[in-house]
Amino acid sequence: MAILKVDTISGIGTEGPVFEGDIEFTSQNFLTLPKGDTTQRGRGRGLIMGGTSPDNVNTVQFVQIQSMGNFVDFGDLPTQVNMNSGSSSSTRGLSFGGKATTTNVIEFVTIATTGNGADFGDLTLDRRYSTSASNNTRSVTMGGYKSTSPALYSNIIDFVTIATTGDASDFGDITVARVNGGAVNSPTRGVMCSGQNPSARDNTIDFVTIASTGDATDFGDVTVARRGAASASSNTRGVVAGGIDQPSAKNVIDFITIATTGNATDFGDSIGSFPYRPTGNVCNLTRGVLVAGGPASPFIGNIVEFVTIATTGNAQDFGDLFSTTNDTGGACSDSHGGLAE
User: Fold this and answer.
1) Residue 25 CB: number of other CB atoms within 10 A?
2) Is 152 in the same domain as 11?
3) Global pTM value
4) Which of 341, 335, 334 shows the shortest CA–CA distance to 91?
5) Alpha carbons 217 and 136: distance in angstroms, whole number
6) Domain range holding 146?
7) Which of 92, 127, 314, 325 sits 20 to 30 Å CA-CA off 15?
């Protein structure tokens, strides 16, 4: 039995009940009241933006993370792009840079709808293989290749306010200039895990406080140095899966507790040696969806696996991509660990 006490209730039969005054609720059973407005309910959508199949594509595809099944068509980005990174608020998904005619481009989609993306602004420099993390207000984009010849490794961090449009601003620097890391996030921290520095695969984990600006701080190390790892996070835990330490693809999955610092711990394994350049941040607070996509045969594919973030153990099969692509770096969701409930 539950008892709800309020001063007055008005509006019944018209716009719906309106509660006025102090509200008290007593129940003998566990109950969590709905949070957020109607645009935030029913969340759980993950997106993959862009890629190569075999040329650069502007395809956006999505899946309901709480289900198990195949991705379906969402719409198109304005730019055909791969090697991009992605991040999101609970309502808007962003794609950053990549390898295309214009590689400093930022584009966005409205996650709750389906349809084509629009221009957002520009990064402070052209880059590809950057790493992006976010909370519900701000996104940070870390590292990447500068689009010069030869390509140069960047240590620059940019940020944007997700609800607006406009160009990115300088945030600070990561501790080691590198590319193609995995990103995990809490509402407070953005974390870049591993990647490739100018001489080798890198095991460094860096973090920033998203709401501030300034240089990144060393967090610890992953268990195996690699580039192109997939990533997922709840509010408290980050998971980093797969990647490559050339020429070998890795099936290792690591995890960290985001609020602390320290080295990553073994979580389990992917089903196979997880191919090069999976994507990150296709997750809700419970489940991380790991999407493969390497640079060339035999790594190109539509492999999708999942893990339960709060546990440890091996990944399981989830489904397939709508469009088989590689270099599928632009990934996001409306319910990842950087977003408060």
Assistant:
1) 11
2) no
3) 0.86
4) 334
5) 22
6) 53-333
7) 92
